[in-house]
Write a structure and sequence with these properties.
Largest sheet: 10 strands, antiparallel, barrel
Strand order of the largest sheet: 1-2-3-4-5-6-7-8-9-10
Structural class: mainly beta
Helix content: under 10%
Strand content: over 45%
Distance between the termini: 11 Å
Radius of gyration: 18 Å
Shape: globular
């Protein structure tokens, strides 16, 4: 990865956000492996009435959120990364509890995110279980919980800008499930095709702390 690209990556991390869902599976990268993942999460309400009311009142309202992470495998069981969510950026660490060579993976992910507009830290813990289906596909499910500014209920000023001085802190949580498909698995036919992304990921998450019924659909691409 070229040095001129690093400032662009940092800017993308800083000005993106991902309120719910860690946008990754349960498996770690492997020692020395470097990974850049970008994705987007789109909210879908269960009823048009809820959607209209949320857009009108801006209460329990989530917009389309981009997400980014830049990670490296420190060991076979530990990943270190810079990730973004909640209008900020911060470090994260992921630990695999089981042998990375096994078909089943169980991991814990801790983010410590600095929310730039609010000038506060937002920690998030994610627990995830994954299972390989063949060589290329991992199906996973997890739960995320965190604490920080209530990004679904940011008040507005008279000038119609976000009033970060009056944002309440809240405990936020979600359950999520998805799959990650390896496009260039080690030893596979596409392993040397560097122009291909490493993997694509699909994820669905349900916020547990919002009054409105919604599901969040996410898609990500790893390089």
């Amino acid at each position: 990865m070229s040095r001129p690209a690093l400032p662009l990556i940092f800017a993308a991390l800083l000005f993106s956000s991902c309120y719910y869902g860690a946008m990754q599976g349960a498996r770690t990268l492997g020692k020395g492996h470097i990974n850049l993942t970008g994705g987007v999460t789109l909210p879908a309400y269960f009823s048009t009435a809820d959607k209209r009311e949320a857009e009108s009142s801006r209460e329990d309202y989530l917009e389309v959120y981009p997400a980014f992470s830049f990670a490296i495998g420190a060991t076979d069981r530990v990943d270190l990364a810079v990730t973004s969510f909640g209008y900020g950026v911060g470090p994260s660490v992921k630990y695999a509890f089981l042998n990375p060579e096994g078909a089943t993976a169980v991991s814990a992910l801790l983010d410590m995110n600095f929310v730039v507009p609010a000038q506060v830290m937002m920690p998030r813990l994610s627990l995830c279980v994954g299972r390989l289906v063949g060589q290329d596909l991992e199906a996973f499910a997890g739960v995320d919980v965190g604490y920080g500014p209530d990004l679904a209920n940011i008040p507005k000023t008279e000038g119609d800008t976000f009033d970060w001085d009056n944002v309440d802190n809240t405990l936020f949580s979600c359950v999520r499930a998805g799959c990650r498909y390896e496009l260039r698995p080690p030893g596979g036919a596409n392993a040397e095709k560097k122009w291909l992304p490493e993997a694509v990921m699909f994820q669905f998450s349900i916020p547990l702390d919002l009054s409105r019924s919604m599901i969040l659909a996410g898609i990500g691409v790893s390089y």
